[in-house]
Amino acid sequence: MEMTPALPDFSEWLRGDRLAAEEKIWLEGEHYEWNLVHVRKALAALGSRPKVLELGCGTGNMARSLVDEVEYLGVDKNPEALEMARAKSSAMFLEDDLRHFSATADLCYSFAVLKHFGLHEWDSLFAHVLSLAPNHVHQLQVTNGESFDDGVNWHSVWLNKTHLLDLISKYNFILNDCALAWSGAKGEEWVIQLQQAVQA
Ligand SMILES: C[S@@+](CC[C@H](N)C(=O)[O-])C[C@H]1O[C@@H](n2cnc3c(N)ncnc32)[C@H](O)[C@@H]1O
């Protein structure tokens, strides 16, 4: 398994002009509208005003749509992104590293975030993320080949499908739903919906 731990955290790389350029792409692509479809599907199974935790919330585009419906908390390590997020809505945001951040929520979700952690820490990071809530929606890059990290300026991880499914069951979760976001030469991007397995 190839490892590239020396690369910087994406939250440190995504500053200034880079963040402004990304924000333009995010807003023009309106991808968060598509992402919301998956989150709303998971929310439909929960009660009214559930506690929702968004990891790597970036500039708060999804928070703006959800803030009136749920008890929302967005976490991101990037202070510039959070400044933009706070200007968009009254949602709660916290500057923290999601590797160490701890909370309890009904639903935890992330889009375009977990792919930015290297293979050297991915399994433990995923275990930590799953410990934050009984319900999850996460966007991930997957491959049929061996897991690899193709990051140049930051980590960009592609997970072997069997590796991912093994981790889901190892941490006692069930894969409820899986949607293909896109596919390319390196693999596919999935949005997975997970639920904690009921203990016998
Ligand atoms: C590609 S952006 C996606 C933003 C948003 N989820 C979206 O879909 O538009 C990845 C986000 O993850 C955040 N991030 C990266 N590493 C992080 C870490 N260690 N802790 C918290 N946030 C992190 C970055 O600052 C950035 O806002």
Helix run count: 7
Give the name of the CATH superfamily: Vaccinia Virus protein VP39
Low-confidence stretches: none
Helix vs. strand class: alpha/beta
Shape: globular
CATH hierarchy, class: Alpha Beta
Largest sheet: 9 strands, mixed
CATH-scheme architecture: 3-Layer(aba) Sandwich
Helix and strand sequence: HHHEHEHEEHEEEHEE
Instruction: Write down the CATH topology.
Output: Rossmann fold
Explain the overall architecture.
The protein is α/β, with parallel strands linked by helices and 200 residues long. It has seven helices and nine strands. The protein has one domain (10-196): 3-Layer(aba) Sandwich (Rossmann fold). Strands 1, 2, 3, 4, 5, 6, 7, 8 and 9 form a nine-stranded mixed beta sheet that branches. The radius of gyration is 16 Å and the shape is globular. The model has no long low-confidence stretch (mean pLDDT 93). The structure holds S-adenosylmethionine (SAM). S-adenosylmethionine (SAM) binds at residues 9-11, 14, 26, 32, 56-58, 61, 75-78, 81, 97-99, 111-113, 116. S-adenosylmethionine binds at residues 9-11, 14, 26, 32, 56-58, 61, 75-78, 81, 97-99, 111-113, 116.
